[in-house]
Amino acid sequence: MCGRYATSRSNADLAALFEATDDAGELAPDYNVAPTDPVPIVRVSRSAGGRVLGTARWGLVPSWAKDPKAGARMINARVETVTTSSAFAQSFARRRCLVPADGWYEWVRGPEKAKQPYFMTLGAAEPCVFAGLWTVWGKAESRLVTCSIITTPAVDDLALIHDRMPLLLPADRWAAWLSAEPGPALLAPTPSSHVARLELRPVGPRVGDVHNDGPDLTTRVPAPPLRPSDVEAIDLTLF
């Protein structure tokens, strides 16, 4: 799963990167994004005639939900079921978005059950871009734009940390994800060459508290090497 991540790029940087019109308001860096937080997304707007940078609340609230609380458990959409899920299928067909991030966090239990967070990142020069979905819930004053991140089975060394990972989209897949007709090709795994460039960075325990924020949360700390026999994935919803 992806239950916590970091996003710190400015409006100007994101608008330029995605060649998008900026309609996001002022974005503040957030190094400890948690479910129901507002996050930047990039989508295609017919009225704007192209890509738009906006914000959405993380945790998709289906149009049929009685209230927005339903979104807290819908932060991720599984690639295996996104085309058939009553919560996500309509958004996959019509409302796909890009979710830019500096990287994401996962926790594992190592020797003696110690909890060790890791930050998966492509580095400061390049964002991780998650395949996302968005929708609108409510009307008028209650209107709420929400989003979810697609997850897929983890591959290579990422599987030592968690059995799931976000569906990462390299730049040559952005246009299709936003605008192509829905189909299996959109859900193809992240290219192994892209995954291989990820840094699996052990970080300090302060990120476990959603009230903590700041760039220090992504600072590398010493940690024992990952070993399959020691690792047990931790559900982030427990934090």
What would you note in describing this structure?
The protein has one domain (5-238): hypothetical protein yedk fold (Alpha-Beta Complex). It contains four helices and 14 strands. The strands form two sheets. Strands 2, 4, 5, 6, 7, 10, 11 and 12 form an eight-stranded mixed beta sheet that branches. Strands 1, 3, 8, 9, 13 and 14 form a six-stranded antiparallel beta sheet that branches. It has 239 residues and is mostly beta strands. The longest helix is centred in the first third of the chain and has 8 residues, at 11-18.
Helical amount: 10-25%
Any idea of the CATH topology? hypothetical protein yedk fold
Q: In CATH, what is the homologous superfamily?
A: SOS response associated peptidase-like
Oligomer state equals single chain
Kindly give the count of domains: 1
Largest sheet: 8 strands, mixed
Number of strands: 14
CATH architectural grouping: Alpha-Beta Complex
Residue-averaged pLDDT = 92
Summarize the helix and strand pattern as letters.
Answer: EHEEEEEHEEEEEEHHEE
Contiguous uncertain segments of 5+ residues: 233-239
Number of helical runs? 4
SSE-based structural type: mainly beta
